[in-house]
Specification:
By secondary structure, the chain is mostly helical. Helix content is 35%, strand content 6%.
Length: 242
């Protein structure tokens, strides 16, 4: 998957197309790859693909496994170098706010349930567990789009009329047949974010914590008191890694 993120055109290789057919079924996987090829051509991106230098496994039987999901993999030393570079990048600093409000917001963050999932310190790795979809999105009411997939892949599910679950519709948490849900983000650079949640459906941090969004909305964890809501917003805007 890291190889595909470095160069999405690997999805147009035989291994990439096989990966899409595995996840989405033959018809949908083929359509996604063909549509992507049309987009590349229409935007003037020409091959030969892929651009990234990647090699198949020494053992052909490993092609399509979790280590080589697209049938190729970038040299591991290069991936380690890239990781080292990314880990060395400085995190964006948090915004400066009213000190008393930030302190009150920190206490709220620690006491109203936020730490059931999130770390207070953003200098530590985020927890690796998957938050079940029904927890993060109580209004989730999926229908089955593709009931049969090669084990351990789950059936493909989708909640009609809502895009919050769409990135989980095909992947369903992982290739390991785990529960349908979502991972946790680092809470950094929030003061500059124009929208919130991964579907960009919430226009501000205040809106995120405002109960007017309703009990069935994504991330329905609210503070009804306006002053408390302001305090936790100030705290979250201040988050950095220092």
């Amino acid at each position: 998957v890291y190889t595909a993120l470095l160069d999405p055109t690997t999805l147009l290789t035989p291994g990439g197309r096989a990966f899409l057919r595995l996840l989405g079924g033959v018809a949908a996987g083929t359509e996604i790859a063909d549509d992507y090829a049309i987009v590349l051509a229409a935007t003037g991106v020409t091959g030969p693909f892929p651009f990234v230098q990647a090699a198949p496994p020494g053992n052909p039987a490993l092609a399509g496994t979790e280590e080589f999901p697209l049938g190729v993999r970038v040299d591991n030393a290069k991936l380690n170098d890239l990781n080292a570079y990314l880990f060395g990048l400085a995190a964006p600093a948090g915004a400066t706010g009213d000190a008393a409000s930030v302190a009150s917001g920190r206490i709220l963050f620690q006491t109203v349930g936020c730490t059931n999932c999130h770390n207070v310190s953003q200098a530590t790795f985020v927890p690796t567990f998957i938050v079940p979809m029904k927890t993060i999105f109580p209004g989730d009411n999926p229908v089955v789009l593709l009931p049969m997939r090669t084990p351990p892949l789950n059936p493909i599910l989708d909640t009609p009329g809502n895009i919050f679950d769409d990135k989980m519709a095909v992947v369903n948490a992982s290739l390991r047949g785990l529960e349908r849900g979502t991972g946790l983000p680092l809470l950094l650079d929030l003061a500059r974010k124009p929208v919130f949640l991964h579907d960009n459906s919430v226009p501000s941090l205040d809106s995120l914590f405002n109960p007017s969004r309703g009990s069935s909305a994504p991330h329905p964890f609210y503070l009804s008191d306006t002053a408390q809501r302001n305090d936790i917003v100030q705290f979250m805007r201040s988050l950095g890694t220092n």
